[in-house]
Amino acid sequence: GQPVWFSIGRRPTTDGPPAQLRLGADKRMATPVNYMDYPFDGISLGYAYSNLFGLTDGPGRIRFCYGRGFESGSQIDDHGGVNDVDFAGLSWDVYKKGNRFFNVQSFGAFNLFNVPGDTKFPSPFELALADSVATGEMTQVEADTAAALTGMNTNGVLDRQNMGNIFHTAAVYMDKIDNINYFVTLGWSHTDPNDDVDEMGISFLNDSWNDPEDKDGYGVYIGGRYDLDDLGLKLGLEYNWGSEDWLAFTPGHDDLYGSKLQTRGSVYEAYVIYDLPGGEAISKYGKAFVRLGYQHYDYEYTYSGMWLGAPTKIDDLADDPLYGQFYAPVEDMDQVYLSFEAYF
């Protein structure tokens, strides 16, 4: 009966608003705005209120969440000097009444590193130095000197290290007019790199041993859905756009190829949901539907979703050999999905 609560364990952090519209759930499925679609374990402390600036007809709530993404252990030196990786933020339901909903969230991810644990990525520069020694083009002393000048060692793999912090803020407004559901979502991302680059010369949204610098990214996500209740049909349209340095935290996505919300560029989506006439539900959660959709991705910059390496305009890749990529980037893409979904 108190207006505060505390919980610990797996956080409800995937498919948050406004994802419930295109996923056919209709009700909010998770706590954070869909720009943060990241499953993690942690703790939360919440407070619910019934009066905000004199508005008593739309109660809201605010939550503080904290989680640890990586534990370095009691002996940091045994882990290559890598520090703990933590996450903390606020999710604030500013106003909620009926279909009208306004939420603001802000969080930070601290001491992020360049490569995940238990995974070894080859370091091309170190391998090239080793080949030069093996072929006699360089002596071992010369190779060690060249490696030291760029902060590399000669183990042939990319060493893990902390790279800095990332901050993120987003807001979503949702409402319904007659049979039309609509939403507007805005996002802002900010990188706060430390003064180091990794062995590849890469830092947050920067590369080629340039001095690390803060970068800001912006995202826009809008959409609507028209419900034909008599026919059991729901027709939806969505559009999202991300800037050159945009970052979204959405590895929990269910898009076929890559998260549409982390795209640096534009994504257009159209879908239709058909509620199956299954008769009386045996559970209050009971429902079944078919969902058919089409997505068109139009990428403008490379490395969508990645916080390492400088994004490059895809149209410029052919103009300069220094823009060469390890993998051929996707410029545009079309995909169709069809699903049968049942809730019980």
What do these coordinates show?
- This protein is mainly beta.
- The chain contains three helices and twelve strands; from the N terminus they run E-H-E-E-E-E-H-H-E-E-E-E-E-E-E.
- The chain has a twelve-stranded antiparallel sheet, with no helix packed on it.
- Strand 6 (162-177) and strand 7 form a beta hairpin.
Give the neighbour order of strands across the main sheet: 1-2-3-4-5-6-7-8-9-10-11-12
Secondary structure tally: strands: 12
State the major sheet.
12 strands, antiparallel
N-to-C SSE string, H for helix and E for strand: EHEEEEHHEEEEEEE
pLDDT average, as an integer? 88
Name the descriptors:
about 350 residues, 12-stranded antiparallel sheet, globular
Task: Please specify the SSE layout and strand pairing.
Elements: E1 4-10, H1 19-22, E2 41-49, E3 60-70, E4 85-97, E5 100-113, H2 124-134, H3 140-149, E6 162-177, E7 180-193, E8 215-228, E9 233-242, E10 265-275, E11 287-299, E12 332-343
